[in-house]
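Worked example

This section walks through a single chain of length 122. The input is the sequence exactly as stored; nothing has been trimmed or padded.
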Amino acid sequence: MKKSRNLFESFLYAISGLIYAFKTQRNIRIHFFIAIVVLIFSRYLNLTNFELLSVILSITLVITAEMINTAIEATIDLITRDYHPLARIAKNVAAGAVLITAINAVIVAYFVFFQKIQKVLF
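Given that input, the structure is written out below as tokens.
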């Protein structure tokens, strides 16, 4: 892999990584779909700036964790195709990090949306 020559190329590499992850990783596509739905829903409920910031930060954390998980899995698959307990641990811990961020996002969503939804429905 060649070293990037300038900032523009660095952005292109980052965008290509995002596109690769989106095209090849089902969970990232699911997270993006849910993120779009949540952001549309957020607009409908007129969230405060702080609430919207909390939602966007949670979305960003989940997608970032998923992308790091993908990078770790790809690196391990590059290093070995054989079963190794440490490879399993690394993959499971990375997946666990995604789970933690997703749980955090659900908790944030509860605090941000629950009362607003109650007001709209009742």
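What to look for: The domain at 29-121 is CATH 1.10.287.3610 (Helix Hairpins).
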